[in-house]
Amino acid sequence: MQQYRIAILGSGNIGTDLLVKAMRSPHLTCVAFIGRGYTSPGMNKARALGITCSDQSIDYIPEHADEIDLVFDATSAKDHALHAPILKALGKQVIDLTPAKVGPMCVPAVNLDSSLGSSNLNMVTCGGQASIPVAFAIGQTHPEVDYLEVVSSIASKSAGPATRINLDEYIETTEKGLQAFSGAKRTKAILNLNPAVPCIDMQTTIFANVKNPDIEALKRVLDPIVEKIKTYVPGYKILVGPILDGDRIVVMVKVRGRGDYLPEYAGNLDIINCAAIAMAEQFAMNGGN
Amino acid sequence: MQKVTKVLVSDPSLRDGNHAVSHQLSADQIAKYCRAAEKARIPIVEVGHGNGLGASSLQVGLAKTDDDVMLRTARENLVNSKLGIHIIPGFGTIKRDLERARDLGVDVVRVASHCSEADLTERHIRFCRTNGITVFGVLMMSHMISAQLLAEEAKKLENYGAEAVLLMDSAGYYLPSDVTERIGALMDNLSIPVGFHAHNNLGMAIANSVTAMECGATILDGCSRGFGAGAGNAQLEVLVAVLHRMGIETGIDLYGMLDAADMAEQELLKEIPRISSLSVVSGLAGVFSGFSKHVQRLSTEYNIDPRDVFFELGRRRIIAGQEDLIIEVAAEIAASKKEQS
Question: How many cross-chain Cβ pairs, A to B, lie less than 8 Å apart?
Fold first, then answer.
């Protein structure tokens, strides 16, 4: 079988962790790891792994277009807005890990099949990957969701400079994703960065105000979805709930990472990257079209 | 260091006080207090949900009055007193919240982050500078890192364009010696004014504020009758009286200030802030004062000792904004109690 060739744009925490995951995948071959300089820890790691590295950023791709089937963009929302038209003109399959919202939003446990037709997939946000499956289950079992709120806490150390500068986009994109997948009238996303040592695991709480809450029905829909998520994110776990606290539904989720590039507490990186890899593998298995 | 002769007093009664009433301040109450503050010539009046713009939520508490109405009401009733707001990136965003606040005529924006996360504020501070709005940087829960690290974080705020930096003792944990060390470190490293925001869990709010001033801080926060989270803030009318007795200029009219405090007691407060036994525990544990209502509610619900909850939250180093984890801690304590019995 012909190898499915991927390139990773962005040599920060996300990009480097993606690289380690891509190398483990039997379906994917990483042909280029691309940043803006050769001195970052991510670059050093990629070189040590024997991967072709470049400091040419997006300019590398047009020059090597024939060698690449799929591009992961792990730069920033602002950069992806510039990269997207270039990659589109080259006809490349794109998986966007920034909150740029160029392509349709993809959460594999919810809409894997319908996502396969899009040339640019947006992986929403880490908080979105963790919470949208739950929000979707709430929407499926409650025709009227008045309000849905998601609070994520992540370890400070797991948030690099791009994540920090993209905080507003993170909130906006997560809120849009929650709305699209749950049908809630209003949504809100909140992010906390906690510097505690030892580092806290990524944790996400979903609150919902719905008409006629039905916890049993929600459990029946949620359980198989959680099993599906676990196939690509083994460290995904429902910590509390679903419970009714007063008149609000509460579900708390914890994500422990695989500890590929960053340690296990960085479940926020793990979940968005695992989702991205799961999609890339689908494209590879579909013959790369 | 030059001796401080003048202090800029900022009054967050209508923001921090919202914590004490579960964010239920009404537009009418806001209007009344703004008029009293204006009369007292209080320089800055801060308004909003307890956690600032965009923070009304199931996580922290839904506000009775939305941000727009709060800001409009305050704006209509403040002339010489400046209208201030608090915003925490992660809760509030530029597009949804700060642009609105700008359009509604906010004078002073205080962009806050947990003490070690100053870089989250960069874009918000720059936005204010670009739009010609006075902007201060705020480091919350500032007892949680060393004086040297605080100075480094504060320096980042200065570099982003903050026109002053305030330390918040959000847990009411500081003793005067902590103030001296931390405010001192900021004074040594910054070229912009430094301020202090006290809480009274250990009965130190006024003493700590005075100590901050003696170390060079020229901005002090205080709330009428101490109206604020947990055991309350530095009691503003007391602070002003103390400053005046020390010969410090505040521009505030003392009678007007006392009238505003009396009015607040009658019209705004559900109960006068006091150092309850639980506030002492909260302060000792170094837990965010704004958690107190949530801890009390959940401890009753789970039939557990709220003091255990506070100490466990402190042990886990839970920070402001992580109210959801109180549910987890309460559930765990309840479960282990069941096991033991």
Answer: 88
